Amino acid sequence: MSTPNSPSKYSNPKNYPMVSVVIPVGGSRVKDVEKLTACVESIANQDYPGEIEILLVVDPDNKTIKDLTFPGNVRFVDFHRLTVDKNRDTNARRKKGLMQAKGEILGVTGVSMVFPKDTVAKAIALMNAWGVEAVDGVSVKMPDDNSFFALFQDNALITEFPKYHKTFVLSRETMGEDQRMPCMTSFFIKRSAFDRVKSLIPVTSYAGWDDYNMARAIVEDGNVPILCANELVSYRNHRVTLRLGKQFTSGVSGMQFYLQNRDNPYAQKRMKQAMIVASLACFLFLAVAIGFAVYGPLSLLAWAGVGVVGLAGIGFLNYLKARFWQAFFFPPFMVIQVLLWVAGFLYTGIAEMQPDGDLILLANKYR
Fold first, then answer.
1. How do 168-170 and 226-236 pair as beta strands?
2. What is the pLDDT of residue 204?
3. Which of 23, 50, 182, 350 has its CA 20 to 30 A from that of 319?
4. Which regions of 70-192 does DSSP assign to beta strands (E)?
5. Are 213 and 91 in contact (CB under 8 A)?
6. Where are the alpha helices (DSSP H) in the chain?
């Protein structure tokens, strides 16, 4: 069966490969009916002429979801989670759905994501144009959401949701070139490639980074390069906040990722960045402490002034990047997020990869 570079040139849907999109429905999103419905509708309403099936990987007793009527070709896949297992099971759900999918092209996304109408067609076109077997895109805010933190998430100088520095092929050789890894928000892979790597995909993670662990396994262990494409966009439909708990657990996951993959270039890059930030923070703390010891409380006012001037300078740089006035006020929130990430990273290293389970559950609950 042929795979078109430009779907519009074909008039017969049978010329298009069947596409299966897997949505793991677990964790805090098991009853998020409104967001899941929006996600399913966006996939069912694609302008792709071929057949699309949607697989919802749910707990067997999740009647809230199973009793709903969804548009399109939707199948439920029961996932039996071990009650004693406190680890995240996103990849286990993804893997089970992908194993039961019927399509020639297999996709993965999340409950709180919304696809533009051309996502599936564009993913296939990109894979063909670049000669790759897998592709992942980027996520951006909902088009009609211009709230402060939605703008912050897309446009801060350092953000949780960066775009790739350019569209490129992530391979063993290019693993450490970018500041991010594929996040599986609009991930597509050819069945033949998935069949080669499915046994390598890890099924659990402790605090997060399910996406990065899956991407690393596909690329590094399975030697299947992934096209990282800024052109392939999906919309974030989650609650827009600073996600402070998420920053901490992401740092926890970052250290776990490093300890498990010390030779991985991306893990090494993250370690270096965390050490630089931690060193700067320690230097500033010592400078403030010495200033206070020598000059007394007035030194604190001087350092506060330095901080304000520094944040204003960073804010101006952020304004030059974003070109709207709200960006001037992003730096304080950016600094808080970075420090929480580094705190989680260092805490896990000190705890020798065994952070307190209740603390992680609390952070995930308020992520």
1. antiparallel
2. 73
3. 182
4. 73-78, 105-108, 113-114, 134-141, 168-170, 187-190
5. yes
6. 33-44, 63-66, 90-100, 119-130, 148-155, 191-197, 210-216, 244-260, 265-295, 298-322, 331-350, 357-365
| Element containing residue 45 per DSSP (H, E) | none
Question: Cβ of 208: how many Cβ atoms within 10 Å?
Answer: 25
pLDDT digits (tens, 9 = 90+) for 269-297: 999 999 999 999 999 999 999 999 999 99
**What average pLDDT does the segment 86-99 reach?**
88
| 84 vs 235, more confident | 235
Q: What is the per-residue pLDDT across 298-321, written as a single tens digit (0 to 9) for each?
A: 999 999 999 999 999 999 999 999
Structure tokens at 118: 């051309």
> Is 362 in contact with 243 (CB distance < 8 Å)?
no
CA distance 18 to 8: 16
- Spatial contact of 190 and 245, defined as CB atoms under 8 Å apart: no
Q: What average pLDDT does range 176-191 have in this prediction?
A: 96
Three-class secondary structure of residue 92 per DSSP:
helix
Residue 325 carries which DSSP code? Answer: G
Radius of gyration over alpha carbons of the chain, in Å? 22
Rounded distance, CA 365 to CA 239, Å? 13
Instruction: Give the N- to C-terminal CA distance of the chain in Å, as an integer.
Output: 44
- What residues form DSSP beta bridges with 55? 22, 75
